[in-house]
Design brief:
The chain is α+β, with helices and mostly antiparallel strands and 108 residues long. 43% of the residues lie in helices and 20% in strands. The protein contains 3 helices and 4 strands; from the N terminus they run ββββααα. It has helices spanning 38-58, 77-89, 94-105; strands at 2-4, 7-14, 19-25, 32-35. A 4-stranded antiparallel beta sheet has the order 1-2-3-4, with helices on one face.
């Protein structure tokens, strides 16, 4: 994973083409990059982000920000009820309870 200016890129290696290729995650806009060495892929990732930001500036558009922190979930009613009960028992808001539980689940 690569990080630059608040953006995150994921990288994969294509062993047939002998090239790294990556994509910025968390955006509707598509930003890709590629390179043949770890140094080159990092440089190309940063160049792609800078190019995207320049392009948005030229168009006088606000660049899309990755991961706003808001997600909308549809839960089964019984799961929703259980989560609310667990949150109240823990003296937490539902939002804080879910955040705490998910952070623990992913080792964050």
């Amino acid at each position: 994973m690569l990080k630059y200016k608040g953006y995150t890129g994921i990288v994969q290696f294509d062993d047939e083409a002998m090239i790294f290729h990556g994509e910025v995650v968390g955006l509707r806009d598509v930003i890709t990059f590629r390179g043949t060495t770890p140094e080159e892929i990092k440089k190309e990732f940063e160049t792609s982000i800078d190019g995207y930001l320049d392009w948005c500036h030229e168009l006088k558009q606000e660049p899309e920000k990755p991961f706003s922190g808001n997600i909308h979930l549809r839960l089964q009613p019984d799961l929703h009820a259980k989560l609310v009960t667990e949150a109240k028992t823990s003296k937490l808001s539902l939002n804080n309870y879910i955040n705490k539980t998910l952070r623990k689940a992913v080792g964050f």
